[in-house]
Amino acid sequence: MSEYVTVAKVGEISEGRRTAFPVGDRDVAVFHVGGKYYALDDFCPHMGASLGTSGVYGDTVVCSRRMWAFNLSDGVCVDVPTLKGETIEVRAQGSEIQVRVPETGAS
Ligand code: FES
Questions:
Q1: Atom of ligand 1 nearest to the CA of 54
Q2: Nearest CA-CA partner of 37 in 6, 57, 66, 10
């Protein structure tokens, strides 16, 4: 089972902002919206643009390449609901923001 990994300190991602962090061989986009943290695989499931550098609007991230919106809580594409970004577990633990990326091949 994978472990939580610290990617930032609480306060380093301002409200309404996002940042991508390398975690192992992947990049994880972490969002801070409404006082909560959300995380998605940074790789847009459409054509791979970075979601961690895309705009945040309400509870969605709007991909910078095609402008499709993805719900932060479940990764589902608002514009094409059959498309879904991978959600990543994220938590604030004390002063640290931590993510838990599934191990490759884990089910
Ligand atoms: S690459 Fe993100 S919507 Fe196309």
A1: 2
A2: 10
Which residues does 57 contact at the CB level (< 8 Å), separation at least 6?
Answer: 69
Position 74 scores a pLDDT of 98
Domains of the chain: 5-100 (2.102.10.10)
Q: Show Cβ contacts of residue 45 under 8 Å, excluding neighbours closer than 6 positions.
A: 75, 77, 83, 84, 85, 86
Ligand 1 centroid to 65 CA: how many Å? 5
- Locate the ligand 1 atom nearest the alpha carbon of residue 64 and give its number: 2
Backbone angles phi, psi at 47, to 5 degrees: -135, 15
Strand 55-57 versus strand 60-62 pairing type:
antiparallel
- Mean pLDDT per 10-residue run, the chain (107 residues)? 93 96 96 97 97 97 97 98 98 98 71
